[in-house]
Write a structure and sequence with these properties.
With 427 residues, this protein is of the alpha/beta class. The protein has helices at residues 42-45, 49-56, 74-81, 86-89, 93-100, 134-148, 208-226, 229-236, 259-263, 274-282, 301-311, 324-330, 334-358, 419-426; strands spanning 20-26, 59-64, 110-120, 123-126, 153-159, 162-167, 182-183, 201-202, 244-251, 267-270, 286-288, 317-322, 363-368, 385-390, 413-416. It has 2 domains: 15-90 and 256-426, Alkaline Phosphatase, subunit A (3-Layer(aba) Sandwich); 99-251, no CATH class.
Length: 427
């Protein structure tokens, strides 16, 4: 079992207390060269003057956010970006999202992410049930909680297709606690593949009972959801039904040092995604929820920008996370991914930069994705992501544009693990 405790580098109070720190995280912005774009990436062709300005006025490089021995998920990548070592504190996505929606876990509880997905002809059609609304999803999860939930299995509704199930050490697990030693398959990485080949597999004999229970719940959910009135209406309207649940990323509650303990910083996180909000809770950051923030391209970019500026009045550090480009990558929608990058630039980053200047704030500004989500593949992959850090303590290097290729000439070089956050914080 992984050691959930996180040893940190010790408190590192910002010099003179006068600097503020902001990270703009464009989830999944990084990509691979695309033939349709003449061998360029979405970041290379997008109109993004604010991002290019951060690169031009700062120092650039690349960051490996996920080592090859770990899954290239947002949970691992964002832990790295925030200066944590996922090898020591990563316990799965479910526990992080459980924290975000207010689920208190016991030490032997196992939490898993529970997607509502669409299955068609025994294959995963999409990972999000057509980006089902939260109102519809909550009704479906509450329905499943009544029909499938027990003292051992607790369903907890989240946002849109993203939910949590908790296995408790009672009933069938009273003698043998639920196991995390499971091989699961994130649905966004397996769109179009047969569901029968993606059943949860036990990694140890002791995990067999847990795997069998979860696979049976998925099977039974298909029968229950198929005829639910919500799905009947969705099909009538030409929408994908939420006709199955899907479990992945099991783990137990981690123990993490807070930002205040590690770095002497107060901070806030702004995101529409439970995963990022949950990381913020474990890190001791103030979670700011912005009305109209959706995790999609229709998110409230301006509201997030204004929330960032407001947070900087009292917090040392603000982490602004935007999901839209990642969702476009999963949907293999090139035009929407480029549009998501341009909206992030013009409607959020430019607005924050102007506000910082108008308010006379001295701030270190960093810009990066957490991982690549290539539109040609539709899933997360391993690979370095482009980084730009504008720091008033340092002169800029020679890079004049922000993209995967341009940053290679930057003075920061190739960073790994906590090197990015240490550079961001200490200069």
């Amino acid at each position: 079992m992984r050691n959930p405790r996180l040893p940190g580098p010790g408190p590192q109070t910002p010099a003179a207390g006068s600097l503020k720190y902001v990270i703009f995280l464009g989830d999944g912005m990084a990509d691979l060269p695309i033939e349709e774009l003449g061998g360029k990436t979405p970041l290379q062709v997008a109109q993004k003057p604010a991002m290019d300005r951060i690169a031009r006025e700062g120092r650039c490089g690349s960051l490996v956010t996920v080592d090859d021995d770990m899954p290239p998920g947002s949970e691992v990548a964002n832990l790295t970006v925030l200066g944590y070592d996922p090898h020591q504190c990563y316990q799965g996505r479910g526990v992080i999202e459980a924290a975000s929606i207010g689920v208190n876990l016991g030490p032997a509880d196992v939490a898993l992410r529970c997607n509502l997905i669409c299955v068609e002809e025994e294959r995963i059609r999409n990972h999000s049930a057509g980006h089902i609304s939260t109102e519809e999803a909550v009704e479906l999860i509450n329905f499943l909680s009544v029909r499938l939930g027990t003292g051992d299995v607790k369903f907890h509704p989240g946002i849109s297709y993203r939910h949590v199930v908790v296995l408790k050490p009672t009933g069938v697990f009273e003698k043998d606690p639920p196991s995390t030693e499971l091989e699961c398959f994130p649905p966004h990485d397996h769109v179009g593949e047969p569901v029968n080949e993606l059943k949860i597999r036990p990694r140890t004999p002791e995990a067999r009972a847990t795997a069998d229970l979860l696979n049976d719940l998925v099977r039974r959910s298909g029968y229950l959801l198929a005829a639910h009135p919500i799905n009947v209406r969705r099909r009538q309207r030409g929408k994908d039904p939420a006709n199955s649940i899907w479990f992945w990323s099991p783990g137990r509650k981690p123990v993490m040092a807070t930002f205040q303990q590690l770095y002497g910083l107060t901070g806030a996180v702004i995101s529409a995604v439970d995963l990022i909000q949950g990381l913020g809770i474990y890190a001791g950051l103030n979670v700011i929820k912005v009305p109209g923030a959706t995790g999609l391209i229709d998110t409230n970019f301006e509201g997030k920008a204004d929330a960032c500026l407001e947070a900087l009045k009292s917090a040392d550090f603000v982490y602004v996370h935007v999901e839209a480009a990642d969702e476009a990558g999963h949907s293999k929608d090139l035009k929407q991914k480029i549009r998501a990058i341009e909206y992030l630039d013009s409607r959020l980053i430019a607005r924050v930069l102007k506000g910082i200047e108008d308010d006379g704030i001295s701030a270190v500004i960093a810009l990066l994705p957490d991982h690549p989500t290539p539109v040609a593949k539709g899933n997360h992959i391993h690979g370095a992501v482009p980084v730009a850090i504008r720091d008033p303590r340092h002169a800029p290097d020679s890079v004049s544009a922000y993209d995967e290729v341009s940053v290679a000439a930057g003075s920061l070089g190739l960073m790994r693990g906590s090197q990015f956050f240490q550079t961001f914080l200490k200069g």
